Amino acid sequence: MKKNDNKLINEKSPYLLQHAYNPVNWYPWGDEAFEKAKREDKPIFLSIGYSTCHWCHVMEKESFEDEEVAALMNENFISIKVDREERPDIDGIYMSVTQMMTGGGGWPMTVIMTPDKKPFFAGTYFPKHQKYNRIGLMELIPRLNDAWKNKKDEILKVSDDILLSLLTPFQQNQANQLGLEILDKAYNELQKRFDSTNGGFGNQPKFPSPHNFLFLLRYWKRTNEPQALLMVEKTLTEMRKGGIYDQIGYGFARYSTDEKWLVPHFEKMLYDQALLVIAYTETYLATKNNFYKQTAEEILEYVLRDMTHPDGGFYSAEDADSEGEEGKFYLWFEEEIDNFFNRSDADFVKRIFNTSSTGDWIKQTHDAAAGAIILHLTKTFDELASEFHLSLVEFQERFNLIRKTLFEFREQRIHPHKDDKILTDWNALMISALAKTYQITSNKKFLIAAGNAARFIQKNLTDKKGFLLHRYREGEAAIPAFLDDYAFLIQAYLDLYEASFNSKYIFEAVKLNQEMLKHFEDETNGGFYFTSDLNEKLPVRQKEIYDGAVPSGNSIALLNLLRLHKITNESSFELKAQKLVYYFSNFIHQHPSAYTQLLCGFDFAIGPSQEIIIAAKSADSSNDFIGVIRNTFSPNKIVLLIDGKENVLPGISPHLKNYKIIKNKTAVYICQNLTCLEPVFTVSELKQIYK
After folding, report:
1. Which CATH class name applies to 610-689?
2. Which residue has the higher pLDDT, 485 or 587?
3. Does CATH place domain 181-320+419-606 in 1.50.10.10?
4. Which of 142, 241, 412, 426 is the most exposed place for a label (fewest CB within 10 A)?
5. Which CATH number fits domain 7-168: 1.10.3720.10, 3.40.30.10, 3.30.390.10, 1.10.3430.10?
6. Closest by alpha carbon to 261, among 235, 225, 222?
7. What b/e readout covers 22-46, taking b as 16+ CB neighbours within 10 angstroms?
8. What is the mean pLDDT of the chain?
9. Alpha carbon distance 231, 218 (integer Å)
10. Residues near 397 by Cβ (< 8 Å), separated by ≥ 6?
């Protein structure tokens, strides 16, 4: 090691490397740290965060780079740093502890625990000295040290009780079947929290939570309830207009600090881009409003431009901070615009992006960027075109020229830090987003990018035994995959199949599903553990069902099982899906709007759902039929293509041999609710079915 570095210096995580030169004697999570803690009889100071976390940077600068704090930590603790994105299993356990002990959670997360990993104190951000009603580390550490030395028996009992509460399983005897009324209950909960003025749910801060939109679209499809669609459209429109959207370079920030979607927390996460692309593409299918399709394409333009590895994988995130200030890369000043454009164009920019509302940023923060402006829209492009007495096409042409000029100017600034690790689960979400966008746009670049990312995972995130891995960076893949990696990648393969009709993706999905069942399933009770039987043994083996910023692996696995059942006719998949829902049913009954991704799967399960089999001489002869299906919002379906060469899925879907071309014509077979319609032979007939 070089002088002044610590044990993090040999790690691959950008977050851990950010702390490698702290005066704190950090260790990565591993046996060395825990054995040292036991030898020296010291508690563990566990700090969990991620590289693009603004408050993680603040705590590092205030405390972990401070010699006084470091000396106190080094004297009293063995200190461990964990990247929550690399080790979501560790993060999940100790986040549950933090929420249980404090009533909230977030990052940076701070947990004090015994050398055998049992927690007894938890919190989030701590300053050096007490402020804002938060105790400082200089005051907290001596108290914790005194308790460890003088009240260790009490601490050990508390830690045992905390661990016991985490080990308490879901109560199987409390389970009760879900019915259609659970969808109504989830809808009503969302409606009560809906902000009819600004869109979104609840008060500030506001997170996108795209699975809420997917659920509402399905609820609208099922019930024809106009308010369900209105909530989706209002929110997606206001978000696209707001400061949470990068109006110049595209892509969404992680959340809005205010209720109007104006002032974002500026970091951009890969998973948000992927999930929002899916929400915008589905909303386009439901409404045929090109605004939503255009937004999906813009988000992908950002991802393919700024977040893509040369070999096809996708990077994890971009920071909120640049040059030590949050949002500096994205903020503007009126004088910049006046100096950069002629008067006419400057006025155009200022009217569109509302620069007259000066000081948007300073109104919301105590940052030094007084008078800084967050570019945002208050009107849609249609409304703006009318205001400028231009056709929509004319307006967008002028707007795009202005936007590109601003983008090129901004590119000269110092960019935020990019977290360039590649995660299997988040990449899988982006593969699904690309595959779905290809289906509504027919733009081959999206399908090519999805295929490249799938090959990247197969080549770089699979070990010598064929097992999936979680993280890749700088040529190294590591960490056995978690449930989310498996579930999201299975979903990605199924989506890629429906985009390309390349049967290899079905084979990959089935193979991966077999591995998931073998290593993650709770065969006794149902559902899936977050960690496999191959992962490191932690104090708790959790099962996650909450659909938070990212849907839970169990929620995605449910829909995967149902889709695979339709594709393969394998009844055990449907039984496992039923068992999963039953196992978690009591929790879903209590607060169904917390599980909207799972309810999308449940909506598929109770039907009506469709199996569509297209038998054609060649893939080309089926294109017009496929186009009709893809242009329809019909989320609860599977589409299979038999192109005349062979049974498309030999050994997996033997029943497909019964679906054939009839009288040398392409035939479309549609089955719904265990009943099959007469085959359809013309595009006009198919349009009548899907009108």
Report:
1. alpha beta
2. 485
3. yes
4. 412
5. 3.40.30.10
6. 235
7. bbbbbbbbeeebbeebeeeebbbbb
8. 91
9. 13
10. none
